[in-house]
Design goal:
- Two copies of one chain form a homodimer.
- The first copy, chain A, is an alpha/beta fold.
- The first copy, chain A, has two domains: 28-114, Rossmann fold; 145-269, NAD(P)-binding Rossmann-like Domain (Rossmann fold, 3-Layer(aba) Sandwich), CATH 3.40.50.
- Chain A is 42% helix and 16% strand.
- The longest helix of chain A is centred in the N-terminal third of the chain and has 21 residues, at 6-26.
- The interface between A and B is medium-sized, with 33 and 33 residues.
- β6 (190-194) of chain A pairs antiparallel with β6 of chain B.
Chain lengths: 288, 288
C-alpha cells in the first residue's frame, strides 16, 4: 500500500513552477495574481495570506485588493473590471464566500475567463466539458478548478492508471465533484457520479478502481465501500475533535487499497499549488 | 413493454408551445429565430428548411441568413454580431458543420449566450454543469442542447422515474453524451459516463435502470447490455441498407425492457421541437 504524499508532490511541483516562472521572466513575462478579499472573515484572511505567501515563494507578483464588508456587487465588479484590463495581472482570485446577499455568480462571471485563476467561470467550465481529451485541455491551456486539478496531478504523479478504469466520484459539488468527473473522463476513465441520492452507494463504490471521496462527511467511506487494490483520493476536510479528518476512514481501508491520500497532507496542499499553476498558465497564455 | 412514441410526444409538446407563443404575443413578445447557413450543403439545407417550417407552424418569426461557402470567420462573426443586437431575434441558430477550415468554436462563441438556441455555447454548458438541480436549470431558464433536452422530455412524459436510478450514458459527445449526463445528474440519477474505452461495457450497461445509447454504431446495443425492466433511449441515427437504424438492436432487446424509443420516431422528432422550445425560452428571458 502506498500513501500518496500530497505534501511532497506539492513541493516537487513548486520547484518545477518556480523554474517555469524564472523562464517566463527571461521572456519578459512577469506572472501576477490579484487577490480580492471582501470583508474581514478570519478564515478567508488566512487563506488569502497563504496565497500571497505562495506567490512570493514562486516569484509571482501579487496584488492584494481588500474591500470593506460593505462593498456591494457594483464595487466588486468595478474592481474586477479594472483588474481585467490591468496588463500586470494575469490571474484574478475572488476569495469566496462573499458576504451574504452578494450575488457570487455575477461577480465571478465578471472576471475575464482568461484571468480566471480559480477556474470557476462558467465559460471555462463549459470549455472543460467540451474538451474531447486531456491533450485538448492542455493544448488550449484551459483553466480548471484547483482542487480537481490537484486530484489529477496526485493520480498522475503516483502512477495510478486512469484510462479504461472505473472511477467513481462521490459528491457532485461545482468545486470538486463535477469538474473532477469531467477531468477523469478526459483521461478516458469510465466515470460514475454518485451522491446523496445514490442507491446502494457501497455497491457502486465497490466497482471503483479509482474512488474520489468529496462528500464532506467525516470518515464516511469505510472498507465496505472499497474494491481491493483500488486507489482512493480523499478530498474531505472535516473538522473533528481529533483535528482535521477526511471523508475516508483511513484506518479501516488502508489495508485494502493500493494507494490512498492522507488527511491532512493529501489533496489539501495541492489545491494551493494548483492556483499558482493556473496563474502561470494564464500568464503564458496572455503572453505578456 | 412500452414504446416511447417520440412523434406523438413531440406533437403534444408542439401544441403546448404554440399556445405559449400565442400567450407571449399577447404580452407583446414575438419570438424570433435567426438561422444561418454557410454554403450549400444539401443535408444542411434540408435541416434549416425544416427548422424554418417548424417556426412557421408554431407562430415563431424566422429570419434566414444564407452566406456563401466562401464566407470566412470574419463574415460569420460580423453577421452574428448584427443578430446579437437585433431585438427581433431571440434565438440564433448557426447550422453546423461549417465549411472545412472555419473555426466552429470561435463562431459559436460569438453568439450572445442569451440567444444560443442550440445550447452549445460554452458559457451555457458551464452554467448547466454548475446548476445544482433541474429546478435551478428551469429557474434560470438555461438553454441546453436540443437532443439531450429531448431525451429528458421523453423520459419525463413517459413516466420514467429518474431520481435515485442508475443511468448509464454510452457515448461522450458534446452534443449528446456529456450534456445528457449533466441533465440526468440534475434530476438526481446516479450517472455513469461510458464510451469506447470502457472495459466490460456490457457489464456496465447491465447496471442501468436508464440506458442512453449515443454511440453512432448501428444496432450495437443487444440484449446482453440490458438489465431487465430498464428504460432505453436510443439516440443513434445510422443510415443502413434498411434505412435509418438506431444504436440499439430493437428486436433483440424489446422483450426485456420496460420502455424503449424506436428509430425513427423516437428522439429524432424531439430534437427539432426542443429548438423551438429553446427559442421561446430565450424570448421569454429576453422579455421583449
Amino acid at each position: 500500500m502506498k500513501i500518496i504524499d500530497g505534501k511532497s508532490i506539492s513541493q516537487e511541483l513548486r520547484r518545477e513552477l518556480k523554474k517555469e516562472v524564472e523562464d517566463l521572466k527571461k521572456q519578459g513575462i512577469e506572472p501576477g495574481l490579484a487577490t480580492i478579499l471582501v470583508g474581514d472573515d478570519p478564515a478567508s484572511q488566512v487563506y488569502v495570506k497563504s496565497k500571497i505567501k505562495d506567490c512570493a515563494e514562486l516569484g509571482i507578483n501579487s496584488f492584494h485588493n481588500p474591500l470593506p464588508a460593505s462593498a456591494g456587487e457594483k464595487d466588486i465588479i468595478s474592481l474586477i473590471e479594472k483588474l481585467n484590463s490591468d496588463g500586470k495581472v494575469h490571474g484574478i482570485l475572488l476569495q469566496l464566500p462573499l458576504p451574504k446577499g452578494t450575488p457570487q455568480d455575477r461577480c465571478l462571471e465578471s472576471i475575464n475567463p482568461e484571468k480566471d485563476a480559480d477556474g470557476l467561470h462558467p465559460f471555462n467550465l463549459g470549455k472543460l466539458a467540451i474538451a474531447k481529451s486531456w491533450a485538448e485541455i492542455e493544448e488550449q491551456r484551459l483553466l480548471a478548478p484547483c482542487t480537481p486539478l490537484g486530484v489529477m496531478e496526485l493520480l498522475e504523479r503516483s502512477g495510478v492508471e486512469i484510462s479504461g478504469k472505473n472511477a467513481v466520484v462521490v459528491g457532485r459539488s461545482n468545486l470538486v465533484g463535477k469538474p473532477v468527473a469531467l477531468l477523469l473522463l478526459s483521461k478516458n476513465a469510465t466515470v460514475t457520479m454518485a451522491h446523496s441520492r445514490t442507491k446502494d452507494l457501497q455497491e457502486v463504490c465497490r466497482k471503483a478502481d479509482i474512488l474520489i471521496a468529496a462528500i464532506g462527511k467525516e470518515r464516511f467511506i469505510t472498507k465496505d465501500f472499497i474494491k481491493p487494490g483500488s486507489a482512493v483520493i480523499d478530498v474531505g476536510i472535516n473538522r473533528s475533535e481529533k483535528g482535521l479528518v477526511g471523508d475516508v476512514d483511513f484506518d479501516s481501508v488502508k489495508d485494502f487499497v493500493s494507494a490512498i491520500t492522507p488527511v491532512p497532507g493529501g489533496v489539501g496542499p495541492m489545491t494551493r499549488t494548483m492556483l499558482m499553476k493556473n496563474t502561470i498558465l494564464a500568464a503564458r497564455k496572455q503572453g505578456k
